[in-house]
Design brief:
Elements: H1 8-16, H2 29-46, E1 53-57, H3 63-69, E2 74-78, H4 82-94, E3 100-102, H5 106-112, E4 117-123, H6 132-142, E5 143-154, H7 158-171, H8 188-197, E6 200-210, E7 217-220, E8 226-233
Parallel strand pairs: 1-2, 1-4, 2-3, 4-5
Antiparallel strand pairs: 5-8, 6-7, 6-8
């Protein structure tokens, strides 16, 4: 049996604060702040999610998962952090949202359910696993031909280290210290290469920006820190 592509220490970090997933002022406050932008990006790039099957890989407590379900998508969320999944299930039930949450890795699910989803999202996860290229490949197998895969991660630049680690974790303390390992950040060229190898065509790369003075998050062309990637399965004729 293939070992799960997971770092238990990383899972434990998220499990320690699982009860705080839906606290907008807690350790996941930055995810609450960017969640509307992430969802809007997926909606704009796909032309809407109503009636589509969507898989959220590394769903955590369900922030993006619920936002996409609210757009009338049929959503499945997967994660290996069982406490986070318990929080996600309870919150969805409170909101009367029908979401299928499963404790399984993307690679394992791809073995049994390839090509089952119109859209696959994998946000803020790649930098937390030992083999991110394996997750990219699994996402490509899970989406149907012509379907969309979305990733978001952090660029491996000095600017990203200064903002995501030094500023966010050590100075401003908007993230728990140790949330990120800068050596695991991923350059857009690397992600694009993994996408091509998995049969995905990168359709868009967009930066996600944070203004520490105003506290505003915006989307734009600069991908030097956080960025989003939209890829499509299969190549144009």
């Amino acid at each position: 049996m293939q070992a799960a592509n997971a770092d238990q220490a990383e899972i434990d970090k998220f499990e320690a604060d699982a009860h705080q997933w839906w606290n907008p002022d807690g350790p996941y406050a930055p995810l609450h702040a960017i969640n509307p932008l992430r969802c809007r990006y997926v909606l704009e790039q796909t032309g809407g999610l109503a009636g589509k099957t969507v898989l959220d890989v590394g769903c955590g407590g369900g922030l993006l998962t619920e936002a996409m379900a609210a757009e009338q998508a049929r959503v499945t969320g997967i994660d290996l952090a069982t406490d986070s999944l318990a929080v996600a299930r309870a919150h969805a039930a409170d909101g009367q949202l029908t979401i299928d949450y499963q404790a399984i890795s993307a690679e394992a699910l791809a073995e049994t359910s390839a090509g089952q989803w119109d859209v696959v999202t994998c946000m803020e996860m790649l930098e937390h696993v030992p083999d991110p290229a394996s997750v990219v490949d699994a996402c490509a197998r899970l989406v149907r031909p012509g379907g969309s895969v979305f990733f978001s991660t952090i660029n491996r630049t000095t600017r990203a280290w200064l903002l995501a680690v030094v500023a966010a974790e050590r100075l401003l303390r908007v993230l728990p210290r140790g949330t990120h390992d800068a050596s695991a950040f991923i350059r857009p060229a690397e992600l694009s290469r993994w996408c091509r190898a998995a049969g995905l065509r990168v359709a868009d790369l967009t930066g996600l920006h944070y203004n520490p003075i105003t506290g505003a998050h915006t989307l734009g062309a600069d991908t030097r820190v956080n960025y989003l990637c939209h890829a499509i399965k299969g190549h144009p004729e």
